[in-house]
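yo, tRNA (guanine-N(7)-)-methyltransferase is done. seq:
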Amino acid sequence: MTDPAESPAEPTDAPERRRIKSFVTRPGRMGTGQVKALAELGPRFVLPYTPGQRLDPVALFGREAPLVLEIGFGMGAATAQIAQSLPDHDFLGCEVHEPGVGALLKLIGEQQIANIRIFQHDAVEVLEQMIAPASLAGVHIFFPDPWHKKRHNKRRLIQQPFVAKLVQHIRPGGYLHCATDWEPYAQQMLEVLAAEPLLENTASAADGYAEKPAYRPLTKFEHRGIQLGHGVWDLVFRKR
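structure:
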């Protein structure tokens, strides 16, 4: 059910001991609306990657508000819906897939969404170079590439080194919300997140998985999978 275009992943040809990355580059066609949105709205909503220059969210959005980072927003439909349902939050989306960036910009323009900004760059480098420690109210990672084959499991994004890096940028009381439609990956996510000493599970269910938060909409691929009897697992952990 997972749509590759909506999934952050890692390079298929990287060496075993490679630097963590949040994506794999995939080709994609740009529609005329996406091209137009990139040209007209990109200068306002797509942020330049400037290593070593910390982002100033108050200056960027013109207000002080909880800041949420989404890693790998795909075609941006869920991102746009969440931003509209949480107007008192500001959102940073990281996505290297250009058609997805264009699609989200198109939605921003059509729906007049003011509380989203975009990085068309690797989320790991954005975190390291531009996001201040303990500055994020939340992080969303929805349906990352599950790398189904066992020999490729090491390429999954949710691994201990990445999570340890990520939580340094979440403020105390902030949250990390992951979702997947691949049960073995859900099990790995649960194991990795539960082992991180700075995180605590918010789920009340005995199996450790959370109810889908109201702010996360169903994607078309998720809805299709549910109709086919596939499962979806949400994990919501809070930083201590």
